[in-house]
Design brief:
alpha/beta, Arc Repressor Mutant, subunit A, DJ-1/PfpI, 320 residues, 7-stranded mixed beta sheet
Length: 320
Amino acid sequence: MDNFMKRVAILTHKYIALFELGCAVELFALPRPEFECWYQTDVVTFDDEIQTTSGGLLLQPKRVHHLDDYDMVVIPNWSASDSTVPAEIAESVRALYQRGGRVLSFCSGSFMLAEIGLLNDRQATTHWHYADRFKQKYPNVSYVDDVLYVYDGRLGCSAGSAAGIDLGIEVIRSDYGYEVANQVARRLVLAAHRHGGQSQFVETPVIKTPNQFSVTLDWALSHLDQDIDVNLLAQKANMSRRTFDRKFRASLNQTPKEWLTQQRLELAKRLLETTSDSVERVANSAGFENAMTLRHHFRKYLQLSPSQFRAQFSAQFSSQ
């Protein structure tokens, strides 16, 4: 986990889309004085003229000629129909990546990364609307369907506009840790669970409504270490099992059993990062039968073992 401020450039251009730009600004440019370390971000452009976005809003970002002063660049979007990249931008983005920087794209921004060669022989994704065009135009890129984002630690692209938020949360998670990423996710009021091929290392808040159903879920969250089954939850919600299952899937788009497993995984991840407890003790505290069961679910959902997760995301306890 890094304890220093990262310099971030959010790139605007003549194709800029306001929503994607707003997502990038919300993630990386919004001041967050509650954190000791945070990103220092500029919205930049290589263009000379004032830019017009959707709705006729005018932008006046910082004019730059290179990206030498930044550790990361975010491309909120790019043109899928005319993906030509000006030489000055292409050279600057490639140079940032080649010196160890990070490059992210949201939605159609992956067209720019592919156009300048950063995605050759790599996995990538973009919005489903552009998938066929992307695969035809860039056969040297391994296109991945049905994921929210693809991210290897230095190069990332999201499958759509809102999926850029999922990618951004994972980047924050890798830079500043689970607790910081969770606070940012809560501020953004993220959905209960974002299904996708990429594991989300961020707490999944529950959609709350003032009724017995939400009270039951709150109870479950505070008793995850206990033996909880779906029949007990239905009883506490004062519903039949069939009604409870139907309402649960309608509200959270997953089964009660899947939700319980997900919440236990979230608790286990938090304990692995913030305590020195053994894997066996973490398993018990999170409501799994034993360490073997915990390892099974980590492999299934995160493609990591608990020990690998701790080593990757907790500098303090990486030696265990």
